[in-house]
Amino acid sequence: MTTAHPASLPAVSPPRAHTAHPAGRAWAWTGLAGAVVGVPGLMVTGNTYDASTGVVADNDELLAAVADSAGLVWAQQAVCGVVAACFLVFAVGLRRSLARQEPANSLVPGLAAAGVVVTAAAVLVGGGICTELYWALTGDQPFDADTVGAHLALYNTIPWLWAALGVSAAAVALGGLRHGSVGRPTAVFSLVMALLLAATQVFPVQYVAVVPGGLWVAVTALTAALGARQDGTRAR
C-alpha cells in the first residue's frame, strides 16, 4: 500500500467567511417619494374646474370650464406613472422587510404588499384616462361634451382610490402588535390609518383615502429608512 506524500496532496482553501450585509432601504425612500409625489400631485392636477360654480350640472359648461386644463391632465398622467412605479418597489421591499421579522408562513408580508400593489394598479389605471381626456381637449375635432364629462368622472375618481392601503396598514399593525415585526409606534399608527381608510369606504368619500393612505406610506417608509440608517450607525 502506498501513502501519498503530504506535499503531493492538492491544497484545500479554507472556506471564505460570508459577510452579512445589512438590507438596503432604497425601497423605503422610493415609497416615500411615491407618497410625496402622489398626494400633492393629484390634488394639484385634479383642480381642473371649480365645482362650486355648478358647472358639473351641464356638460357643455363643464367642457368650457376645463378647456384650458390639458396641461394638468398631462401632468396627472406623469404623476400616476411615477406613483405606480414607486409603490411597486415599496411593496416588494416592505414584504421582504416584514418576512425577515414575521414567523414562517405568516400572511402579514403578503397582505402588506398586496394592498400597495392594488393601489399602484388603481393609480396606473386611473392615469389611463388622461390620454383620452388630453386629446379630447386638444384635438382638432371637438369631442362631445357628454363624453368629456364621462372622462372627467373617471379622471377625478380612479387615481384617488388608495383604500387598499388599509389592508397593508392593518397587516403591518397586526404584525407589529403581535410579533414585533415593526416598532410599536409604527404599529399603532398603522392601526389608526387602517381605521381611517376603512371609514372612507363606509361613507361616500372614497377620494379622501388618498390622505390617510399617502400619510401611512410616507410615515412607514420614512420610519423604515431612518431606522435602517440608525442600525447601520450602531453597527459601525
Describe this structure in words.
With 236 residues, the protein is mainly α. It has one domain. 68% of the residues lie in helices and 0% in strands. The chain has helices at residues 26-45, 59-65, 70-101, 108-138, 145-155, 165-179, 184-202, 210-235. α1 (26-45) runs antiparallel to α3, α2 (59-65) crosses α5 and α4 (108-138) runs antiparallel to α5 (145-155). The longest helix is centred in the middle third of the chain and has 32 residues, at 70-101. The termini are far apart. The model is unreliable at 15-21 and 229-236 (pLDDT under 50).
N- to C-terminal distance: 56 Å
Separate helix tally:
8
* Proportion of helical residues: 55-70%
Taken from the alpha-carbon principal axes, the silhouette is: elongated
Largest sheet: none
Strand content: under 5%
| Number of self-contained structural domains | 1
- Count all strands and give the number: 0
- What order do the helices and strands follow? HHHHHHHH
The structure class reads mainly alpha
State Rg.
25 Å
Would you tell me the overall average pLDDT?
88
**Contiguous uncertain segments of 5+ residues:** 15-21, 229-236
